[in-house]
Write a sequence for this structure.
């Protein structure tokens, strides 16, 4: 899978693309990343990419010209039409189902905005999908871009050394995770639940499922309701 990121802050991706699961995926060519500095497409000496908004108002707006030019160059080196995403609080909330769907694309372009916003003509004529990672305001779209890439890359075949560790993640199965423990079995008077050291694998799995159900019901009732609905649909389907 190929990712192209259009950004005003290319340096923030240096550590991201070299670290952990993501870095290993890029090094092993499971995924590919290209960073495009939006200022390289500015036409003036001082690399201005923003301007005041028509109609007045506070803040600066990224001009359409550098963004269009960046997309044009990416198109010239792409073997197929990419899926183009812009990060904004007005976008649809990022869900695990969104991640699963986006895995079907071989090439994704991520536009990480900055300042007050971008010229609306970019959204109208270049962007295929708008995504939000939460109901709050960030300084720009770079963190959302990294969040989305991380979520996708860790699900790609071969990205994680133990594939089962992603198959049982929270959101792919619709429930929060069960509690985890490791050695020592007793620490400062706090003991691991006896069932986990009993060796009864069937009972352990039942315990984990019950914990996932109770934890989801308590902490994320919205997810719990969705899980029950999905369960019912699968039963009737």
């Amino acid at each position: 899978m190929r990712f192209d990121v259009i950004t005003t802050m290319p340096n923030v991706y240096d550590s991201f693309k070299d670290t952990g699961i993501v870095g290993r995926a890029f090094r092993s060519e499971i995924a590919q990343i290209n960073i495009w500095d939006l200022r390289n497409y500015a036409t003036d000496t001082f690399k201005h990419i923003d301007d005041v908004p028509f109609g007045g108002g506070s803040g600066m707006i990224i001009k359409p010209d550098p963004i269009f030019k960046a997309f044009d160059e990416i198109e010239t080196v792409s073997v197929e039409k990419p899926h183009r995403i812009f990060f904004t609080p007005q976008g649809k909330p990022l869900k695990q189902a969104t991640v699963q769907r986006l895995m079907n694309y071989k090439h994704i372009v991520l536009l990480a905005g900055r300042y007050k916003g971008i010229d609306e003509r970019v959204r109208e004529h270049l962007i295929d999908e708008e995504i939000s990672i939460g109901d709050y305001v960030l300084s720009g779209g770079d963190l959302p871009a990294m969040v989305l890439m991380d979520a996708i890359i860790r699900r790609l075949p071969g990205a994680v050394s133990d594939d089962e560790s992603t198959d049982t993640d929270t959101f792919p199965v619709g429930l929060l995770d069960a509690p985890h423990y490791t050695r020592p079995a007793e620490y400062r008077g706090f003991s691991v639940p006896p069932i986990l050291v009993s060796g009864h694998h069937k009972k352990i799995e039942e315990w984990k499922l019950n914990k996932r159900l109770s934890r989801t019901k308590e902490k994320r009732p919205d997810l719990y309701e969705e899980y029950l609905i999905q369960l019912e649909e699968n039963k009737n389907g």
User: Anything to note?
Assistant: The chain has two domains: 2-153, 170-236. The mean pLDDT is 94. The domain at 2-153 is CATH 3.40.1280.10 (Alpha/beta knot).
